[in-house]
Amino acid sequence: MAELLWQKPGVTVDTGIQRFLAGDDVILDREFFLHDIRASRAHAQGLAKIGILGAVELAGIERELDKLASDFSAGSFVLDERFEDGHSAIEARLTERLGDAGRRIHTGRSRNDQILVATRLWLKERVQQVADLSRAIAEVALDRAKAEQDLPIPGYTHIQRAVVSSAGMWWAGWAEAFIDDAIRARDTLALIDCNPLGTAAGYGVNLALDRLHSTTALGFSRMQVSPIYAQLSRGKFELAALEALGSATLDLRRIAWDLSLFTSAEFGFVNLPSQYTTGSSIMPNKR
After folding, report:
1. Run of H or E residues at 93
2. 43 is an active site residue
């Protein structure tokens, strides 16, 4: 078992307690681990800028962080119950390889701002994917709307034919829907694109940390200024990201339902190639 970040000198923590503390944390932290390493690198650079780390020590930390990221990606380093969480694993690895220089990576930061910044980086990446995919779907839908603007199909209400419409009009509706989803994801990115690193446990630290450096190094557009608000934003930014994802997922569900109806024999508007269909084990006529 690795030494715990909060462990008191001369006190041995029961291994069962440590496994309990690790719980699902290490499993969840695998998703954030590379972002945690990236933020640790920026933090180490900031410590070097104020003289906490020397140039040689910084170079060693950057080298070991790069190696840890490589080992984790390759599967030769496993984040498991030996560590209380991903943050502990990073510090344990640096301390093992670099001694006191590695231990000093925790100077001026708390696991509170450490998980905030790792989560924030992960959220930015995922919300950007939602924005990109929504825009890509909108572009395809718009292309199909132009190509099929004169292709007549019934317009349905309550799954009953109601008016004469067109495939182009159907596609255009989805194009606009996913444009809105892309806009919503973009707006969410603007909200969450702020750097909490350096706020510690909610009251900052008595060190002249260069938070502008970490903000730039990590690709944030702005700094989350108030240490108290950094902690208060827990859950708030995650909820905003979930709402952006939920908006896009709602439209995906609806277009999938339309297409599933349109491919049925009763509608027959859409025909999928055989390699994309399944069948019945007893009724060969079914697709």
Report:
1. helix 86-98
2. no
